[in-house]
Amino acid sequence: MLRLTTLTSVLALAATSLMAEEIKVGVTPGPHAQIMEEVAKVAAPMGLDIDVVEFSDYVIPNTALVDGDIQANSFQHEPYLDNQMKDRGFELSVVGTTITTPMGIYSDKIKDIADLADDAKVAIPNDPTNGGRALLLLQDLGIITLTEGSGLVPSPLDIQDNPKGLKFLELDAAQLPRTLADVDIAIINTNYATSAGLSPKDDSIAIEKPDSPYVNIIVVRKGDEDLPWVKTLVDAYHSDAVKTFIEQSYDGAVITSW
Fold first, then answer.
1. 24, 181, 192, 256: which could join 70 in a potential S-S bond, CB 3.0 to 4.6 Å?
2. Same domain as 91, residue 219
3. Is the domain of 75 the same as that of 203?
4. Domain span at residue 160?
5. Please, which contacts does 146-149 make with residues 24 or more away whose CB atoms are closer than 8 Å?
6. In the chain, helix, strand, coil percent, each to 5?
7. Does 176 lie in the same domain as 108?
8. Cα dihedral value 68, 72, 74, 77, nearest 10
9. What is the spatial distance between Cα 81 and Cα 12, in angstroms, rounded to a whole number?
10. Smallest Cα–Cα separation from 231: which of 17, 21, 18, 12?
């Protein structure tokens, strides 16, 4: 009886494996990639085989999704997606929320943001939404003032008051950790900070508040929202196992949305 039960289990597992649906999910390095690897482990017994594909920047994952090279991505917040769809005409849909990764300010030259000198060099991401996010953080800290109505995507042109005369350098987000020797401060997304060995909790000299509007999302092509694998992907991401992994791995630098 034991052998028959064992054989039945093996055959059931084999059948599940044969019927498993395969998808590719695009992510950026760091927490997004690490978490999606855990999601893949949860999704496998649910009949979904996830191939995690890493991209080194913020533009290609949406292009790859539109082109059909991947079936979903998990790396961006909604303001960024909205801007991409507006600028590039992408037809994409949000199917679930994931995590918030607070943006931090880092420096090799000062230990306190209050010590930021006049005419300091400030490196920020060169994409509109994350660059705007960096400027909003500086405004929240009382360092600059942005023009009223600039919304969630201000640019350096929207700076109304800059009493310290800060000099802004707009650079590729992935390269910002490498600029720390050459600038006074760099405002860096958590995934690129952690990939460079920086701890948002221990190494940042200032960090976003946890109630920012920048919760990250799972995105698919418009029209794919109701496909069965989409629900499986979201359910696997929102599992207790993945939540526990995040809480134990990132010491508060990554916050779950569920």
1. 24
2. yes
3. no
4. 104-207
5. none
6. 40, 25, 35
7. yes
8. 80
9. 40
10. 21
**This prediction's pTM:** 0.76
**Of residues 95, 102, 128, 129, the one with CA closest to residue 233:** 95
**To the nearest whole percent, how much of the chain has pLDDT over 70?**
93
Mean pLDDT per 10-residue interval, the chain, length 258 residues? 48 52 96 97 98 94 98 95 94 97 95 98 94 96 96 95 98 97 96 91 91 91 98 98 96 89
CA 44 to chain CA mean position, Å: 23
| Tokens standing for residue 11 | 């055959």
- Tell me the residue type at 137: L
Question: How many domains would you assign to the chain?
Answer: 2
Instruction: Give 172's contacts (C-beta < 8 A, 6+ positions apart).
Output: 57, 125, 126
DSSP state of 31: H
CA distance 149 to 196: 35
Read off the DSSP letter of residue 215.
Answer: -
pLDDT at 19: 64
What are 118-164's pLDDT values in tens digits? 999 999 999 988 999 999 999 999 999 999 999 998 999 999 999 99
Task: Identify the CATH number of the domain in which residue 80 sits.
Answer: 3.40.190.10
The alpha carbon torsion through 105, 110, 112, 113 (nearest 10 deg) reads -50
- SS3 of 124, please? strand
